[in-house]
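Human
Can I borrow your eye for a moment on a structure tokenisation matter? Give me a protein, with the fold worked out from its sequence. Write it directly below this note and I will take it from there.

Assistant
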Amino acid sequence: MAARWRPEGIDHVGIAVRSIAVSSRLYAQLGVEVGPPEHLPDDAVSAAFIVLGAVRIELLEPLGPEGPVARFLVRRGEGIHHIAFAVGDIVQALEHARHEGFRLIDDVPRRGAHNSRVAFLHPKDTHGVLVELVERAAS
């Protein structure tokens, strides 16, 4: 591997919620606007973003009783679900993670919110934190 790879920064923090609508009302009371939800059927969730300057928070609502976020809510309740790192080249990031011995939930990138490409590292290798790698779609 040529140069040492590293993330470009934090892309967002994901929060599992039972209802984006209910959560949106809470954030509105704090003066924060939640963007419109986007359905991500491959992940069995709806996702809506809060953008405050450079900080992005993703609210994740399960589309039904199946899927990773639905299972997370049953096990742990509402709360922080994952941290996402911004990467310029997700294929290179996955290659680096694999080379460093991380177990991958996604061997290849999949479609994420706003047409991004995403992949997850297994939390057993990241001290219990689900880590997402995000390559944003070109504007």
Remarks:
- The chain has one domain: 9-135.
- The mean pLDDT is 94.
